[in-house]
């Protein structure tokens, strides 16, 4: 098996898992917080996708799709490339309004398509050990570490969103 297939499969799973979480939820469900300081499903998915877009665009040395494809307008938010939800206050989370599952999943698909193209067409095995600098995260890490970190981060928030879904639907 080629290593690209293994990494690509993980990114594909992100989309499949989020589609399951969105299934049957209303717009109100996406913005509802189980408690005042708990993240909503809509905010969690937005944060996950914004982080993927920012961090992977940085790795690819490309402008974020948030800006270049004007996804920010579809989310009714500013084009600020740094606005990913990192360090958002409880008030900022409460004021977030999800554009709905269709737009959220569309943004995710656009990002994942870009990532898949990058993995398939621009990375070879020797690139995985290459050290990269992240001005945003203010650290250095290998390409492999960045890829696996993005997958880990995404699945962490998918788990949180699935847990919130269970709380909202009273399924524990």
Commentary on this structure:
It is a single chain. The chain is mostly helical and 172 residues long. The chain has a single domain, classed as dinb family like domain (Four Helix Bundle (Hemerythrin (Met), subunit A), Up-down Bundle), CATH 1.20.120.450. Helices cover 62% and strands 5% of the residues. The protein is built from 8 helices and 2 strands. Strands 1-2 form a two-stranded antiparallel ribbon. β1 and β2 form a beta hairpin. The longest helix has 26 residues. The radius of gyration is 16 Å and the shape is globular. The relative contact order is 0.20.
Roughly how many Å apart are the termini?
Answer: 38 Å
Structural class: mainly alpha
β-sheet strand percentage = under 5%
| CATH architecture label name | Up-down Bundle
Shape: globular
CATH homologous superfamily label: dinb family like domain
The residue-averaged pLDDT reads 94
Question: What oligomeric state best describes the polypeptide chains here?
Answer: single chain
Radius of gyration equals 16 Å
Q: Indicate how many domains the architecture comprises.
A: 1
- CATH class bucket: Mainly Alpha
Strand order of the largest sheet: 1-2
In the predicted model, the low-confidence regions spanning at least 5 consecutive residues are: none
Enter the CATH topology name: Four Helix Bundle (Hemerythrin (Met), subunit A)
Count of extended strands: 2
Helix content: 55-70%
- Summed up, the helix count is 8
């Amino acid at each position: 098996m080629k290593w690209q297939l293994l990494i690509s499969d993980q990114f594909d799973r992100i989309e499949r898992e989020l589609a399951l979480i969105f299934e049957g939820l209303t717009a109100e469900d996406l913005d509802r917080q189980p408690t005042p300081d708990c993240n909503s499903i809509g905010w969690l998915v937005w944060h996950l996708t914004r982080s993927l877009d920012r961090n992977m665009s940085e790795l690819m040395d490309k402008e974020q799709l948030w800006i270049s494809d004007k996804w920010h307008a579809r989310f009714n938010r500013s084009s600020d490339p740094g606005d990913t939800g990192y360090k958002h206050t409880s008030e900022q989370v409460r004021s977030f309004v999800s554009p709905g599952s269709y737009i959220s999943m569309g943004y995710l698909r656009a990002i994942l398509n870009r990532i898949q193209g990058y993995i398939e067409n621009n990375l070879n095995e020797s690139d995985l050990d290459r050290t990269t600098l992240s001005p945003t995260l203010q650290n250095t890490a290998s390409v492999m570490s960045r890829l696996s970190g993005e997958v880990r981060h995404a699945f962490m928030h998918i788990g949180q969103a699935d847990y919130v879904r269970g709380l909202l639907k009273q399924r524990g």
